[in-house]
Write a structure and sequence with these properties.
Number of helices: 4
Shape: rod-shaped
Order of helices and strands: HHHEEH
């Protein structure tokens, strides 16, 4: 086969096209692919940074809130009966019963944490002897005290 100048030009063009194709396949495509992967990673890190900044802002707001409302938060903590040492609550009931002329017997039960509740609850059984009207006053004083309580059951017997 005789190579004519026209064939040389065609072979050279085909050669350059093949070389350009190979360069684009083996050099340019991996570079663009790497750039796309890096961009996706930068976007993920930017999202993580934005989330962390929001969490940091939430923490600062919570710290500010807790400083401003420290007294109220402490009052809320005092409203719960201490399951380890319920003496303050028992003394409150006994003193109020004495003022009303009632005889009270307090029997604490174990702290119970029911499913779905955040805090364990204390159960006290009270046996009270005295006038019904005085008992109702005691019950109202207990419910309006600084303790967070709930009356769950009531049995009344006439003696």
């Amino acid at each position: 086969m005789i190579i004519t100048p026209k064939n040389k030009i065609i072979i050279t063009i085909i050669g350059f096209a093949l070389i350009a194709g190979m360069v684009s396949i083996f050099l340019i495509y991996p570079i663009f692919n790497s750039i796309a992967e890096s961009s996706a990673e930068i976007e993920l890190r930017a999202d993580d940074l934005a989330r962390l900044n929001q969490e940091a802002e939430n923490i600062r707001e919570f710290q500010s809130f807790s400083k401003e409302n420290r007294q109220d938060i402490d009052k809320i903590g005092e409203a719960f009966v201490d399951p380890e040492n319920p003496l303050e609550f028992i003394e409150f009931i006994e003193s109020q019963a004495d003022l009303l002329g009632l005889v009270v017997k307090i029997t604490p039960n174990e702290a119970v944490k029911k499913e779905g509740e955040v805090f364990p609850s204390m159960v006290f059984n009270l046996s009270v002897i005295g006038k019904f009207s005085n008992f109702m006053v005691l019950l109202k004083k207990m419910e309006s005290s600084g303790f967070l309580i709930s009356t769950t059951g009531l049995n009344i017997k006439r003696i």
